[in-house]
Amino acid sequence: MEEMRRRDLLRVVGFAGVGAWLVGCEQQDREIESGTPRSSPTPIGTPSASLPRPARWTPSPRDVAPQVKTTAVRMVEAAGTWAHGDSEDAGVRRRLEESGYSPDLGRSLGALTNGGQEAVVQVIDAQYGGILAHAASVLTVVRQWAIGDDGAVTVRGTTLDIRLVTGQPRWVVTSVRPARPGRAIKELSRAARALLANDRVALPAAATRDVRSGAIDDVVLLALASLSGRRRIRVSVLRSGHPLRVFGTDRISNHTQGLAVDVWALDGRSIIDTGNTPTVADFMKEAVDVGANQIGGPVDLDGGGVTYFSDDTHQDHIHLGFTI
Questions:
Q1: What top-level class would CATH report for the domain 35-178?
Q2: pTM score, two decimals?
């Protein structure tokens, strides 16, 4: 009975709030989406004035292993940015090798390494899919601008699960697993349509396609809609681009089943930079009220209980998992 009341509440709050969603964000929120708050002043070398000049992504001083993320991100920046006529496989391999990476990694980067005369890439966010003593997964949310043969600029994006192992003098990228969302379906649920129209929930490209494919359970979509009534939410990953199994285990992840979401920023402030603050703790508590029963973040709010947990992997985002 309690579960039925909770589901009914989610539906009422999730749908009734659509008309009240605000349009636009504060400047700080726009900056965090573009990646500018955590970027060096030196822009990535951009091949053309027709393309933007995004700054390099840099890790937070609070990060548990900043070199891990930096190693993953620099590989993406090197492979996904090229000048006129340098998008062929040989160019990708050369850029990776010159940057200290295996040239074979380019085979797994898909559209980020082709499909344009010139291109520039920007990393929006990099969070851990898992961080252990000798292995890591860095989920890298990417946006790319490319100039086609007709001179038109297109914008595309994806999420990459970049795997690394320890090495000398730095961590080593061993593989890249790109997001593979399903095809869009014609008949989306009411919850899916509402979330896609919600200006208070920012979904990256891969997550948007996850919703359009019908792969995400309504319980997750309704929960996000309800939570966005109090805070602006920036999602890093829903299903595509996340490890199929909980990193370092044989357990199938809730993300794989469309029953989880990771949030990397609230109200324009990243989770890694805010840490254990009242806003983060309150959001984690509010998640219980909308049905989440597996909540990971920078702090364990029940000290070893069954609902909340915290570890190195979840210092940079809040994981909300659901059971149906």
A1: alpha beta
A2: 0.86
